[in-house]
Amino acid sequence: MKKNLLLRLVTEKGCKRYDFKKLIDKDRPTEERNCPEHGAYTATNFLGEHWTACPKCLEILQEKQEEESLQKQKEAALEREQLKWKAKINGAAIPERFKDRTLDSYIARTTGQKKALAFSKEYAENFDQVMKEGRSAIFVGKPGTGKTHLAIGIALEIIKQQRSPVFVTVQRLIRRVKDSWHTKNETESEVVDVFASPDLLILDEVGVQFGSEFEKQMLFDVLNERYEKLKPSILLSNIPREQLSDYLGERVTDRLRENGGKMIGFDWDSYRKGS
Ligand SMILES: Nc1ncnc2c1ncn2[C@@H]1O[C@H](COP(=O)(O)OP(=O)(O)OP(=O)(O)O)[C@@H](O)[C@H]1O
Ligand SMILES: [Mg+2]
Ligand SMILES: [Zn+2]
Questions:
Q1: Given the CA of residue 205, which atom of ligand 1 is nearest to it?
Q2: Which atom of ligand 1 has the smallest separation from the CA of 97?
């Protein structure tokens, strides 16, 4: 009982130092008591049965509470940070199953994998420079070799640098353009803008579909606008290099390879089979 009341007196004052002496009427009875931890102290009766507790104990209690409230503030800040992080990943449209595919979780055993990882790390770490140069990249190669994994890894890295990547597959991009024809949500040019504006565009599954003239024109529109704005893009594809150039057209591949834009080959066995 006694302990509870004292606790309440302290907590009501929150983090402020509480001057216990002020509360106590000079005429109240006092008594020499002993704290098993801190030794002798003068206890004052301040209300009925209630006596002041050891001042050192109270001080420690108060410090503990201050610490706890600081800890809570920190946790709340961390939570806000995590929410912001989630919002950014949502903004980047990173697919659910790829949200934890970081550069750190990519296992590089073969020389090719090591090269691809080193390229991705360099690209992400120097993204400021990449943006200045508008340096794009193309990842081509066999399925399951980690093209999407590494590209997402780059995206997650640059989000930390307050940059805005956007991930999209060609199919989705085209679908969104076509949807714009018969909905009022956005116009075709607004769709192009959505993908032409981000700091980095990751365009996945290039060449998976047959590739109609319309599709090629759309890709050209988006990539050309980015090119003109000096904005980098990373294209991912599992069709052979030569076919990719045919598919995209020379105008696009030329633009992507300007300013040191590299084509990285992924020609090892699929990770999906289990290594
Ligand atoms: N070296 C690696 N270390 C860890 N995980 C890997 C590695 N390579 C691939 N993976 C994992 O294997 C799966 C397939 O990789 P991913 O989807 O990135 O391949 P891809 O090259 O994009 O294939 P596709 O051409 O079919 O799209 C993913 O879950 C990915 O995280
Ligand atoms: Mg992929
Ligand atoms: Zn004490």
A1: 27
A2: 29
Q: 237 CB under 6 A from ligand 1?
A: no
> Which ligand 1 atom is at minimum distance from the Cα of 237?
25
Picking from 91, 112, 134, the residue at the C-terminal end of a domain is: 91
Please check whether residues 98 and 39 belong to one and the same domain.
no
Q: Which residue segment(s) compose the domain that 22 sits in?
A: 1-91
Q: How are strands ordered across the β-sheet holding 50-51?
A: 30-35, 39-47, 50-51
Q: Does residue 218 register a pLDDT over 70?
A: yes
Q: Which residue has the higher pLDDT, 82 or 8?
A: 82
Quote the tokens at residue 59.
Answer: 């001080």
Task: Choose the residue to mutate in 271, 272, 273, 275 for probing ligand 1, maximizing ligand atoms within 8 Å of C-beta.
Answer: 271
Identify the residue with better confidence: 69 or 5: 69
Say whether pLDDT at 242 is over 50.
yes
